[in-house]
Protein backbone atom coordinates (compact mmCIF):
# COMPACT_ATOMS: atom_id res chain seq x y z
CA UNK A 1 0.00 0.00 0.00
CA UNK A 2 1.10 3.53 -0.82
CA UNK A 3 -0.23 5.05 2.40
CA UNK A 4 0.03 8.82 2.23
CA UNK A 5 2.45 8.77 -0.67
CA UNK A 6 1.50 9.62 -4.22
CA UNK A 7 3.59 6.89 -5.77
CA UNK A 8 5.16 3.62 -4.72
CA UNK A 9 8.54 5.02 -5.69
CA UNK A 10 8.12 7.91 -3.26
CA UNK A 11 7.07 5.50 -0.51
CA UNK A 12 9.94 3.14 -1.26
CA UNK A 13 12.46 5.99 -1.13
CA UNK A 14 11.12 6.83 2.33
CA UNK A 15 11.11 3.15 3.35
CA UNK A 16 14.89 3.04 3.07
CA UNK A 17 15.86 3.73 6.68
CA UNK A 18 13.76 0.69 7.66
CA UNK A 19 14.74 -1.54 4.75
CA UNK A 20 18.42 -0.73 5.31
CA UNK A 21 18.09 -1.46 9.05
CA UNK A 22 16.23 -4.73 8.45
CA UNK A 23 18.80 -5.84 5.92
CA UNK A 24 21.82 -4.95 8.03
CA UNK A 25 20.41 -6.68 11.10
CA UNK A 26 20.89 -10.01 9.31
CA UNK A 27 24.58 -9.26 8.72
CA UNK A 28 25.77 -7.35 11.78
CA UNK A 29 26.15 -8.19 15.43
CA UNK A 30 25.97 -4.81 17.19
CA UNK A 31 26.99 -6.18 20.59
CA UNK A 32 30.08 -8.04 19.39
CA UNK A 33 30.83 -5.38 16.76
CA UNK A 34 31.13 -8.01 14.06
CA UNK A 35 29.90 -8.56 10.51
CA UNK A 36 29.04 -11.97 9.09
CA UNK A 37 27.28 -13.68 6.21
CA UNK A 38 24.01 -15.25 7.36
CA UNK A 39 24.68 -18.98 7.68
CA UNK A 40 28.41 -18.28 7.58
CA UNK A 41 30.76 -18.07 4.64
CA UNK A 42 34.51 -18.61 4.45
CA UNK A 43 35.99 -15.64 2.57
CA UNK A 44 39.49 -17.06 3.07
CA UNK A 45 38.56 -19.95 0.75
CA UNK A 46 38.15 -17.70 -2.31
CA UNK A 47 40.69 -15.71 -4.33
CA UNK A 48 38.42 -13.35 -6.22
CA UNK A 49 34.82 -12.36 -6.81
CA UNK A 50 32.92 -12.08 -10.07
CA UNK A 51 29.75 -10.03 -9.74
CA UNK A 52 27.09 -10.34 -12.45
CA UNK A 53 23.97 -8.19 -12.55
CA UNK A 54 21.86 -5.87 -14.71
CA UNK A 55 20.89 -2.22 -14.39
CA UNK A 56 20.71 -0.80 -10.91
CA UNK A 57 21.87 -4.07 -9.35
CA UNK A 58 25.07 -3.85 -11.42
CA UNK A 59 25.74 -0.37 -9.99
CA UNK A 60 25.31 -1.77 -6.49
CA UNK A 61 27.85 -4.40 -7.54
CA UNK A 62 30.27 -1.72 -8.70
CA UNK A 63 30.03 0.00 -5.32
CA UNK A 64 30.64 -3.40 -3.71
CA UNK A 65 33.81 -3.78 -5.73
CA UNK A 66 35.39 -0.68 -4.14
CA UNK A 67 34.57 -1.98 -0.68
CA UNK A 68 35.76 -5.55 -1.19
CA UNK A 69 39.00 -4.42 -2.79
CA UNK A 70 39.72 -1.61 -0.37
CA UNK A 71 38.72 -3.34 2.86
CA UNK A 72 39.34 -7.01 2.14
CA UNK A 73 41.98 -6.86 -0.59
CA UNK A 74 39.85 -9.25 -2.64
CA UNK A 75 39.98 -8.67 -6.39
CA UNK A 76 36.49 -8.12 -7.80
CA UNK A 77 35.22 -7.98 -11.35
CA UNK A 78 31.77 -6.61 -12.05
CA UNK A 79 30.10 -7.21 -15.36
CA UNK A 80 26.72 -6.64 -16.87
CA UNK A 81 25.21 -10.13 -17.10
CA UNK A 82 24.10 -9.80 -20.75
CA UNK A 83 27.72 -9.24 -21.80
CA UNK A 84 29.27 -11.74 -19.40
CA UNK A 85 27.08 -14.64 -20.48
CA UNK A 86 27.96 -14.42 -24.16
CA UNK A 87 31.64 -13.63 -24.18
CA UNK A 88 33.22 -16.85 -22.94
CA UNK A 89 34.84 -15.22 -19.95
CA UNK A 90 38.02 -16.79 -18.59
CA UNK A 91 37.16 -17.29 -14.95
CA UNK A 92 39.83 -18.49 -12.55
CA UNK A 93 39.29 -21.35 -10.12
CA UNK A 94 38.72 -19.96 -6.65
CA UNK A 95 36.35 -17.31 -7.98
CA UNK A 96 33.12 -16.76 -6.10
CA UNK A 97 30.36 -15.79 -8.55
CA UNK A 98 27.84 -13.36 -7.05
CA UNK A 99 24.58 -12.51 -8.79
CA UNK A 100 22.90 -9.34 -7.53
CA UNK A 101 19.19 -9.07 -8.30
CA UNK A 102 16.09 -7.62 -6.71
CA UNK A 103 13.73 -10.07 -8.43
CA UNK A 104 16.05 -13.07 -8.61
CA UNK A 105 14.48 -13.76 -12.00
CA UNK A 106 16.29 -11.48 -14.47
CA UNK A 107 17.01 -13.69 -17.48
CA UNK A 108 20.55 -12.53 -18.20
CA UNK A 109 21.65 -12.57 -14.57
CA UNK A 110 20.20 -16.04 -14.08
CA UNK A 111 21.93 -17.32 -17.22
CA UNK A 112 25.26 -15.86 -16.05
CA UNK A 113 24.81 -17.47 -12.64
CA UNK A 114 24.05 -20.85 -14.23
CA UNK A 115 27.05 -20.50 -16.51
CA UNK A 116 29.30 -19.96 -13.49
CA UNK A 117 27.78 -22.95 -11.72
CA UNK A 118 28.40 -25.13 -14.78
CA UNK A 119 32.03 -24.07 -14.69
CA UNK A 120 32.25 -25.41 -11.16
CA UNK A 121 32.42 -22.06 -9.38
CA UNK A 122 30.80 -21.48 -6.02
CA UNK A 123 27.80 -19.23 -6.58
CA UNK A 124 25.99 -16.76 -4.36
CA UNK A 125 22.89 -14.67 -5.00
CA UNK A 126 22.09 -11.37 -3.29
CA UNK A 127 18.34 -11.29 -3.83
CA UNK A 128 15.30 -9.51 -2.48
CA UNK A 129 12.83 -12.20 -3.63
CA UNK A 130 13.86 -15.01 -1.33
CA UNK A 131 11.83 -17.69 -3.15
CA UNK A 132 13.13 -16.75 -6.59
CA UNK A 133 14.95 -18.96 -9.07
CA UNK A 134 18.33 -17.40 -8.27
CA UNK A 135 17.69 -17.85 -4.54
CA UNK A 136 17.02 -21.54 -5.15
CA UNK A 137 19.81 -22.23 -7.59
CA UNK A 138 22.74 -20.42 -6.03
CA UNK A 139 24.89 -22.33 -3.55
CA UNK A 140 24.52 -19.47 -1.09
CA UNK A 141 21.62 -17.02 -0.73
CA UNK A 142 22.37 -13.65 0.80
CA UNK A 143 19.02 -11.93 1.32
CA UNK A 144 18.20 -8.27 1.17
CA UNK A 145 15.25 -7.42 3.41
CA UNK A 146 13.86 -4.48 1.46
CA UNK A 147 10.34 -5.91 1.37
CA UNK A 148 8.34 -5.92 -1.87
CA UNK A 149 9.49 -3.25 -4.31
CA UNK A 150 6.63 -2.17 -6.59
CA UNK A 151 8.05 0.89 -8.37
CA UNK A 152 9.73 -0.10 -11.62
CA UNK A 153 12.60 2.23 -10.75
CA UNK A 154 14.59 0.43 -8.10
CA UNK A 155 15.34 2.40 -4.93
CA UNK A 156 15.16 0.52 -1.65
CA UNK A 157 16.37 -2.72 -3.24
CA UNK A 158 19.47 -0.83 -4.40
CA UNK A 159 20.38 0.52 -0.95
CA UNK A 160 19.67 -2.91 0.54
CA UNK A 161 22.07 -4.49 -1.98
CA UNK A 162 24.73 -1.89 -1.13
CA UNK A 163 24.13 -2.59 2.59
CA UNK A 164 24.70 -6.32 2.11
CA UNK A 165 27.81 -5.83 0.00
CA UNK A 166 29.27 -3.39 2.53
CA UNK A 167 28.62 -5.72 5.47
CA UNK A 168 30.08 -8.69 3.58
CA UNK A 169 33.16 -6.67 2.63
CA UNK A 170 33.72 -5.95 6.33
CA UNK A 171 33.21 -9.65 7.18
CA UNK A 172 35.67 -10.64 4.45
CA UNK A 173 38.22 -8.07 5.61
CA UNK A 174 38.07 -9.41 9.17
CA UNK A 175 38.30 -13.07 8.13
CA UNK A 176 41.22 -12.37 5.83
CA UNK A 177 43.11 -10.56 8.57
CA UNK A 178 43.03 -7.20 6.79
CA UNK A 179 41.45 -5.47 9.77
CA UNK A 180 41.68 -6.20 13.49
CA UNK A 181 38.75 -6.56 15.90
CA UNK A 182 38.79 -2.86 16.81
CA UNK A 183 38.73 -1.80 13.16
CA UNK A 184 35.92 -4.23 12.45
CA UNK A 185 33.93 -2.87 15.40
CA UNK A 186 34.47 0.69 14.13
CA UNK A 187 33.25 -0.21 10.64
CA UNK A 188 30.24 -2.04 12.05
CA UNK A 189 29.45 1.03 14.17
CA UNK A 190 29.52 3.20 11.03
CA UNK A 191 27.23 0.76 9.22
CA UNK A 192 24.81 0.78 12.13
CA UNK A 193 24.57 4.56 11.71
CA UNK A 194 23.44 4.18 8.09
CA UNK A 195 19.67 3.84 8.69
CA UNK A 196 19.53 6.98 10.84
CA UNK A 197 21.65 8.98 8.39
CA UNK A 198 19.58 7.71 5.49
CA UNK A 199 16.50 9.04 7.30
CA UNK A 200 18.24 12.36 7.80
CA UNK A 201 19.29 12.44 4.16
CA UNK A 202 15.63 12.45 3.11
CA UNK A 203 15.51 16.04 4.39
CA UNK A 204 17.33 17.14 1.23
CA UNK A 205 13.87 17.05 -0.33
CA UNK A 206 13.40 20.82 0.25
CA UNK A 207 16.61 21.65 -1.60
CA UNK A 208 15.60 19.21 -4.36
CA UNK A 209 12.23 20.95 -4.78
CA UNK A 210 14.12 24.15 -5.53
CA UNK A 211 16.29 22.56 -8.22
CA UNK A 212 13.93 20.03 -9.85
CA UNK A 213 12.02 22.51 -12.08
CA UNK A 214 15.26 23.53 -13.74
CA UNK A 215 16.32 19.93 -14.32
CA UNK A 216 12.86 19.17 -15.72
CA UNK A 217 13.53 21.70 -18.50
CA UNK A 218 16.88 20.22 -19.50
CA UNK A 219 17.34 18.06 -22.57
CA UNK A 220 20.53 16.43 -21.28
CA UNK A 221 21.98 16.04 -17.80
CA UNK A 222 25.46 14.89 -16.82
CA UNK A 223 26.20 13.08 -13.55
CA UNK A 224 29.78 12.95 -12.29
CA UNK A 225 31.46 11.11 -9.42
CA UNK A 226 34.74 9.50 -8.43
CA UNK A 227 35.42 6.27 -6.56
CA UNK A 228 32.22 4.73 -5.23
CA UNK A 229 30.38 7.88 -6.27
CA UNK A 230 31.06 7.00 -9.90
CA UNK A 231 28.63 4.05 -9.90
CA UNK A 232 26.24 6.25 -7.95
CA UNK A 233 26.50 8.81 -10.78
CA UNK A 234 25.60 6.02 -13.23
CA UNK A 235 22.66 5.10 -11.03
CA UNK A 236 21.53 8.74 -10.81
CA UNK A 237 21.58 9.02 -14.59
CA UNK A 238 19.66 5.74 -14.98
CA UNK A 239 16.99 6.86 -12.49
CA UNK A 240 16.47 10.14 -14.34
CA UNK A 241 16.32 8.45 -17.76
CA UNK A 242 13.90 5.78 -16.61
CA UNK A 243 11.23 7.91 -15.03
CA UNK A 244 11.57 11.42 -16.47
CA UNK A 245 12.70 10.47 -20.01
CA UNK A 246 15.44 13.08 -19.90
CA UNK A 247 18.67 11.97 -21.48
CA UNK A 248 21.31 11.61 -18.78
CA UNK A 249 24.84 10.23 -18.69
CA UNK A 250 26.93 9.20 -15.73
CA UNK A 251 30.67 9.70 -16.04
CA UNK A 252 33.73 9.19 -13.91
CA UNK A 253 34.66 12.79 -13.05
CA UNK A 254 38.22 12.16 -14.22
CA UNK A 255 36.93 11.30 -17.70
CA UNK A 256 35.40 14.74 -18.14
CA UNK A 257 38.34 16.07 -20.11
CA UNK A 258 38.39 13.02 -22.36
CA UNK A 259 35.17 13.91 -24.10
CA UNK A 260 32.06 14.84 -22.16
CA UNK A 261 33.28 18.35 -21.32
CA UNK A 262 32.45 19.18 -24.95
CA UNK A 263 28.79 18.85 -23.96
CA UNK A 264 29.00 21.47 -21.23
CA UNK A 265 26.98 24.60 -21.92
CA UNK A 266 24.44 26.79 -20.07
CA UNK A 267 21.66 24.35 -20.93
CA UNK A 268 23.19 21.17 -19.53
CA UNK A 269 23.03 20.73 -15.76
CA UNK A 270 26.01 18.86 -14.33
CA UNK A 271 25.21 16.99 -11.14
CA UNK A 272 28.30 16.19 -9.12
CA UNK A 273 28.18 13.69 -6.25
CA UNK A 274 31.14 14.39 -3.99
CA UNK A 275 31.08 13.85 -0.24
CA UNK A 276 34.20 14.70 1.73
CA UNK A 277 36.58 11.82 0.98
CA UNK A 278 39.98 11.16 -0.59
CA UNK A 279 38.63 12.19 -3.99
CA UNK A 280 36.96 15.47 -3.03
CA UNK A 281 39.74 17.89 -4.03
CA UNK A 282 40.08 16.32 -7.46
CA UNK A 283 36.36 16.53 -8.06
CA UNK A 284 36.35 20.21 -7.03
CA UNK A 285 38.78 20.95 -9.83
CA UNK A 286 36.48 19.14 -12.28
CA UNK A 287 33.59 21.29 -11.08
CA UNK A 288 35.63 24.46 -11.54
CA UNK A 289 36.36 23.41 -15.12
CA UNK A 290 32.65 23.01 -15.78
CA UNK A 291 31.80 26.37 -14.20
CA UNK A 292 34.57 28.11 -16.14
CA UNK A 293 32.89 26.92 -19.33
CA UNK A 294 29.52 28.34 -18.38
CA UNK A 295 28.17 25.03 -17.07
CA UNK A 296 25.66 24.82 -14.25
CA UNK A 297 26.92 22.64 -11.40
CA UNK A 298 24.70 21.10 -8.76
CA UNK A 299 26.86 19.58 -6.06
CA UNK A 300 25.52 16.84 -3.80
CA UNK A 301 27.84 16.74 -0.80
CA UNK A 302 28.06 17.01 3.01
CA UNK A 303 28.48 20.10 5.23
CA UNK A 304 32.26 20.21 4.89
CA UNK A 305 32.01 19.74 1.13
CA UNK A 306 29.43 22.52 0.99
CA UNK A 307 31.88 24.85 2.75
CA UNK A 308 34.51 24.07 0.09
CA UNK A 309 32.23 24.13 -2.94
CA UNK A 310 33.57 26.19 -5.83
CA UNK A 311 31.90 29.53 -6.39
CA UNK A 312 28.96 29.20 -8.73
CA UNK A 313 28.01 25.66 -7.69
CA UNK A 314 24.60 25.15 -6.15
CA UNK A 315 24.69 22.74 -3.26
CA UNK A 316 22.48 19.98 -1.91
CA UNK A 317 23.78 19.18 1.56
CA UNK A 318 23.35 15.59 2.72
CA UNK A 319 24.38 14.44 6.22
CA UNK A 320 28.04 14.02 7.10
CA UNK A 321 29.04 10.36 7.38
CA UNK A 322 31.96 7.98 7.23
CA UNK A 323 33.02 7.24 3.63
CA UNK A 324 32.15 3.55 4.05
CA UNK A 325 28.42 4.41 4.19
CA UNK A 326 28.50 7.45 1.89
CA UNK A 327 26.99 5.53 -1.09
CA UNK A 328 23.95 4.73 1.09
CA UNK A 329 23.59 8.23 2.47
CA UNK A 330 24.08 9.98 -0.89
CA UNK A 331 21.70 7.63 -2.75
CA UNK A 332 18.54 9.29 -1.46
CA UNK A 333 19.44 12.62 -3.09
CA UNK A 334 19.72 11.22 -6.60
CA UNK A 335 16.56 9.17 -6.16
CA UNK A 336 14.54 12.14 -4.89
CA UNK A 337 15.85 14.34 -7.67
CA UNK A 338 14.75 11.88 -10.36
CA UNK A 339 11.42 11.42 -8.61
CA UNK A 340 10.55 15.11 -8.34
CA UNK A 341 11.65 15.85 -11.89
CA UNK A 342 9.40 13.05 -13.16
CA UNK A 343 6.46 14.37 -11.11
CA UNK A 344 6.95 17.86 -12.55
CA UNK A 345 6.97 16.36 -16.03
CA UNK A 346 3.75 14.51 -15.26
CA UNK A 347 5.33 11.15 -16.04
CA UNK A 348 3.93 7.85 -14.82
CA UNK A 349 6.52 7.36 -12.11
CA UNK A 350 5.67 3.82 -11.06
CA UNK A 351 5.06 2.48 -14.58
CA UNK A 352 7.53 4.18 -16.89
CA UNK A 353 6.90 3.62 -20.58
CA UNK A 354 8.45 0.56 -22.21
CA UNK A 355 9.81 -0.82 -18.94
CA UNK A 356 8.97 -3.96 -16.99
CA UNK A 357 9.76 -4.47 -13.32
CA UNK A 358 11.44 -7.74 -14.00
CA UNK A 359 13.12 -8.56 -17.32
CA UNK A 360 12.61 -12.29 -17.59
CA UNK A 361 13.16 -12.52 -21.33
CA UNK A 362 16.27 -11.35 -23.12
O1 LIG B 1 15.45 -7.67 -10.56
P1 LIG B 1 16.83 -7.22 -10.93
O2 LIG B 1 17.51 -6.51 -9.80
O3 LIG B 1 17.69 -8.33 -11.46
O4 LIG B 1 16.64 -6.16 -12.08
C1 LIG B 1 17.74 -5.62 -12.73
C2 LIG B 1 17.35 -4.44 -13.58
O5 LIG B 1 16.39 -4.81 -14.54
C3 LIG B 1 16.80 -3.30 -12.74
O6 LIG B 1 17.68 -2.89 -11.74
C4 LIG B 1 16.46 -2.10 -13.63
O7 LIG B 1 17.63 -1.52 -14.12
C5 LIG B 1 15.60 -1.11 -12.85
N1 LIG B 1 14.49 -0.68 -13.63
C6 LIG B 1 16.39 0.08 -12.36
O8 LIG B 1 15.62 1.06 -11.77
TrEMBL record:
Origin species: Phenylobacterium montanum
A single GO BP: amino sugar biosynthetic process
Claim: Electron transport is one of the keywords in the record? no
> What is the protein's quaternary organization?
Homodimer.
What positions does UniProt annotate as the active site of this protein? 357
Is Transferase there in the keyword field?
Answer: yes
- What name does UniProt use for this protein? Glutamine--fructose-6-phosphate aminotransferase [isomerizing]
Per UniProt, subcellular location reads as: Cytoplasm
> Keywords in UniProt for this one?
Aminotransferase, Cytoplasm, Glutamine amidotransferase, Repeat, Transferase
